[in-house]
Specification:
This protein is an alpha/beta fold and 314 residues long. It is built from nine helices and 14 strands.
Length: 314
């Protein structure tokens, strides 16, 4: 039994996921009004007593990113002013993460800016999943718990019983994630070397590793326009790969993403429910829930227990 004093709230971005988390914890979703004034400003009201409570606000900053980010900030401010004992921002998907450093002149570091906003709005702690860049944890001056959805995907492949597997990074930046994934299933690693031409277009160059006659799992933290993962799939087929699976935590899926996934030679594309999947997804796209993982993490944070065990068990 969990002690009294926990409240789970949600903005409009993650209502279904928040309800699923509440089901895991056998608790009701907290009552919070989130709507708009006639001029478009966000109106928030916490419709139950949260004084002295341990509050968890579940809200991905997915499209429309600015709307959902502002909802999160205003919800935290409302909770702080309602005398919540502690406010934890549960960010299944952390937006504005691509700009995590100054890689050229006169550009912002938006990942740090958003971290500052979250802290200023009243967060005492952050719980997030598969950050686009792991160093973003260091942008916060409050505790950050960083979970990985790979465990959910690994369970799926264990049940599937896939053999002769090579884990593939669709670019060099994803190689660490692919190596960690491969280590858990004792598989080899391959990397598709590419260069980005524009923010939404890449040119794949060559394959590092051997995939001929192998079943390949392409892993990444997100699918945005699906250009990288679709191009990687085509390259792998050219190099003689057998069955292909795509595996990405965050299904941002904007622009022509669904069309590219439909045309790419995947058997299945696995994504998590950190972001609600937009209508029109191909049948090959399969959603796996991270609600049990987030629910356990929330329970452990609330009870003051270690989260380390969640990384050791498979």
């Amino acid at each position: 039994m969990m002690r009294k004093g926990i409240k789970i709230l949600s903005g409009s971005a993650s209502r279904d996921l928040a309800r699923a988390i509440c089901n895991e914890l056998d608790r009701p979703l907290g009552a919070a009004l989130v709507d708009r004034f006639p001029d478009g400003e966000i109106n928030v009201k916490i419709e139950e007593d949260i004084r002295g409570c341990d509050v968890f606000i579940v809200q991905s900053t997915c499209p429309p990113v600015n709307e959902h980010l502002m909802e999160l900030l205003i919800l935290m401010d409302a909770c702080k002013r309602a005398s919540a004992e502690r406010v934890t921002a549960v960010l299944p998907y952390y937006g504005y993460a691509r700009k995590d450093r100054k890689d050229e002149g006169r550009v912002p570091i938006t990942a740090k800016l958003v971290a500052n906003l979250i802290c200023s709005a009243g967060a005492n702690r952050v719980l997030c999943m598969d950050l686009h860049a792991a160093q973003i944890q260091g942008f916060f001056d409050i505790p950050v718990d960083h979970l990985y959805a790979s465990k959910v995907f690994l369970h799926y492949f264990a049940r599937l019983g896939t053999k002769d597997v090579v884990v593939v990074a669709p670019d060099v930046g994803s190689s660490k994630m692919a190596s960690s994934f491969a280590k858990r299933i004792d598989a080899d690693v391959a990397i598709v070397e590419k260069r980005r031409v524009t923010p939404d277009k890449t040119n794949a160059l060559k394959l590092i590793g051997t995939v001929e006659g192998k079943n390949c799992i392409i892993v990444d933290d997100m699918i945005s326009t699906a250009g990288s993962i679709a191009e990687a799939a085509k390259i792998l087929k050219e190099y003689g790969a057998r069955e292909l699976w795509g595996c990405a935590t965050h299904p941002v899926c904007c622009g022509n993403a669904f069309k590219r996934l439909e045309e790419a030679p995947f058997r299945e594309v696995l994504v998590a429910d950190t972001i609600p999947l937009a209508p029109g997804a191909p049948e090959k796209v399969k959603v796996l829930s991270v609600a049990p993982m987030l629910g356990e993490a929330i329970k452990r944070i609330h009870l003051g227990e270690s989260l380390s065990i969640m990384f050791d068990r498979l």
